[in-house]
Amino acid sequence: MTANQDPAVPDPTAAPPVCPRHPDRVSYVRCQRCGRPACPECQRPAPVGIQCVDCVREAARRAPRTTTVLGGRTPRSATPVVTYTLIGLCVVSFALQLTVGHAWSQQWAFSAATGVVEPWRFLTAAFLHSTSGVLHILFNMWALWITGQALEPLLGRGRFVVLALLSAVGGSVGWLLLAGGPADGTWYQGVVGASGMVFGLFGALIPVLRRMGGSARQIVVLLAINGVIGFVVPGIAWQAHLGGLVTGLAVGAAYARAPRERQALVGWAVPVGIGLALVLLAAWKYVGVGWY
């Protein structure tokens, strides 16, 4: 007769199992999928037992991606990554404005005179803010956080970032279209702030909320109040607010009203069309005043 080792009892002569990701850690707990040892840091709860972090990531990678009701790809994480990234860029840029000084703002701010030779300023101006106080950036970041929390999960990250950037450019185009010609002082006046982007996000919320069966009354009231403030309080570029609002409304309406079978087409065709329209409007203005 021979005595067989009970598989439930560890062999005292064998080397203790170690975590593949952390070889210095002994672990007798094994992943239910691959059977490898997993230390406490690499363990993830599963319906039965635990899985290692590598198997969890592989399963997530292979899982089919779903789309939202508006046609955007459902994010794998609930964290509004794009919203936080936009806020982070604005905060870092504001810190550079305070430390580097006027040179940083002058390099990226938008004006009608500089936009024709440095067109990237149509976008970069949205990441600058007035350094005379913190209210400007605080309000814009609060508004960006509020609208981003609502829109990014519904639209998906790709569509949301397109909406935000197009609204920012639309704000600069709005300022350009309503500015005077080269003989006017506004032609050379610098414009900074994420307000055009924020107004575009608020504008997109109106058709999106209606598509979801919600009420957009509070958004409309908020936009009306800010519109009045823009005309009453000096130093506010209401033209940029209007340009961003119109752009956001157009993009949001297209996303919200697209038939299910055409959402993928609308997702790229509408942003391209609106982007082209903004370029043509800017070129029309420059040609009209003899600046191009």
UniProtKB/TrEMBL annotation:
According to its record, how does it sit in the membrane?
A: Multi-pass membrane protein
User: What is the protein's major site of localization?
Assistant: membrane
Signal peptide (UniProt feature, chain positions): none
- Transmembrane annotation, as ranges: 81-100, 120-139, 160-181, 187-207, 219-236, 265-287
- What InterPro entries does the entry give? Peptidase_S54_rhomboid_dom, Rhomboid-like_sf, Rhomboid_protease_S54
Cell location: Membrane
CC per GO annotation:
membrane
| Single GO MF descriptor | serine-type endopeptidase activity
Q: Where is each Peptidase S54 rhomboid domain found?
A: 118-256
The entry's keywords = Hydrolase, Membrane, Transmembrane, Transmembrane helix
Under Pfam families, the record lists: Rhomboid
On whether Nuclease is a keyword of this UniProt record, the answer is no
Family classification:
Belongs to the peptidase S54 family.
What this protein is called in its record is Rhomboid family protein
- In its UniProt entry, the species of origin is given as Isoptericola variabilis (strain 225)
